[in-house]
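Sequence design from tokenized structure. All designs in this work follow the same two-part layout: the structure record, then the generated sequence. An example of the structure record is given first.
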């Protein structure tokens, strides 16, 4: 299974009349934030594959359509049965602060040999740096992660695994992040990764202007990828 991961920048290789041919073997799209919604719309329309997205700290014109309270002080993770139409606009599924069992993306679990849906979870936003929309303190983000725990534990009981892919905008602290207040990652993401052991973490937020900058990092059993521009990951299916 191949997944096209995008974030932060409209990439000419993706936003192209040749994209359908170039990415003909893609099975799904992961959008890690700071992208115009019409760009996501273009990708979904062109590739006609399942797509999932989170918001970053920019391009937030439609953010309040997905959240009743603009500051998002406390928003519970949705249950699997409680999907609402607003979570599937532009042809993409919104994963902000929630988990999702992607029934449309079936994989064979190497541990059990059984076929099951791809297990996803997503987090929108960045570290708070100027009190802007969709910015959070470490404590606020820790609370949001905690609210997803019941669904992750349910995954473990049902499928033998908590999570396959953790889609975020901000990176974990000290992994691909920077030291200025805007681009610091979340320390609580590291704790989350250690506890729930997703196979992949896909994030954005950190622009890659230096070809020597680290883009992929392995932490235990988790591979962490910066999706700036675009990047393709492959999952045994």
């Amino acid at each position: 299974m191949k997944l096209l991961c995008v974030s932060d920048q409209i990439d000419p290789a993706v936003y192209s009349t040749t994209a359908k041919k170039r990415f003909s073997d893609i099975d799904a799209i992961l959008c890690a934030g700071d992208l115009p919604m019409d760009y996501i719309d273009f990708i979904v329309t062109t590739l006609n594959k399942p797509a999932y997205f989170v918001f970053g700290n920019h391009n937030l014109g439609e953010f309040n359509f997905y959240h009743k309270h603009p500051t998002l002080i406390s928003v519970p993770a949705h249950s699997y049965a409680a999907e609402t139409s607003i979570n599937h606009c532009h042809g993409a599924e919104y994963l902000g602060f929630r988990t999702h069992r992607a029934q449309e993306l079936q994989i064979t679990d190497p541990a059990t040999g059984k076929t099951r849906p791809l297990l996803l979870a997503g987090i929108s936003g960045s570290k708070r740096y100027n009190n802007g929309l969709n910015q959070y303190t470490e404590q606020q983000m820790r609370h949001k992660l905690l609210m997803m725990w019941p669904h992750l534990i349910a995954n473990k009981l049902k499928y033998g695994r908590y999570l396959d892919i953790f889609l975020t905008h901000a990176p974990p602290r000290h992994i691909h992040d920077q030291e200025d207040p805007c681009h610091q990652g979340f320390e609580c993401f590291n704790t989350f990764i250690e506890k729930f052991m997703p196979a992949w973490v896909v994030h954005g937020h950190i622009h890659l202007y230096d070809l020597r900058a680290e883009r992929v990092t392995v932490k235990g059993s988790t591979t962490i990828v910066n999706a700036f521009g675009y990047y393709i990951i492959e999952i045994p299916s």
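Residues 70-85 have pLDDT under 50 and may be disordered. We note this feature because it recurs in several other targets discussed in the main text.
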